[in-house]
Design goal:
alpha/beta
Amino acid sequence: MINLPKVIGHRGAKDLVPENTLISINESIKYNVKWIEVDVKVSKDNIPFLLHDDLLDRTTTATGNPCNYLYKEIKTLDAGSWFDKKFYFAYPPSLNEVLSFCSNKILGINIELKPNKGKEKENVIAISNLINQFRPKFQYYFSSFDYLSLKLMRRYMPGSGLGYLLDNSNYKKDFNSIIRKCINLKCFSIGFNKNFINKNIIKLCKKNNLAITVFSKRNIKYKSALKLWENGVDSIFLDNPNYYEKILD
């Protein structure tokens, strides 16, 4: 059984240091965060590594699709100077490195399966193979906005925890169909953009035994988080864990 905490570090601590790096994950630990979320894609040689965007352009010194690069090339990239020049030494870590780090720190991890357009299957196979080899003793689960990736992960890791992510209000037109999708895949959680959730949706999720996570394009303020938890939300993703000392102690 997956026990979600009230707070999950979003891409580590993305507002404080370069996202999806070991530096970012370590920064979240300084605030006593017990779980982190990372975004995972595969390189040309099918090595899972951390990257959020479709392209390398925003957060590294390379350009284009990561699937065009071998991981040994990706590992040499500067993934920190875009945030601040003092982080020039940061690089996109492999998922294997991150799992080792989480194992040493006993840190829970939410692995978001990025679409990897055209390479969804390769991405899922590479990640599932690595997880099966690693056999983590800490808690983890997979999430995605891409339903195909979740279906593939259910096939390759039948017993894994899955969470379906939603980022717009379109689902409100027929939210029951979303619930059916989650039930069909045996998802244990469902994640919402903070702007597109309400008490009725929370109630329906709870009725169907779905844990609820909430994310936002901007860091969720403490007062808003308190209201979300009060309404039944299980976890929120934080870009900056400052001001959450009472929850994280």
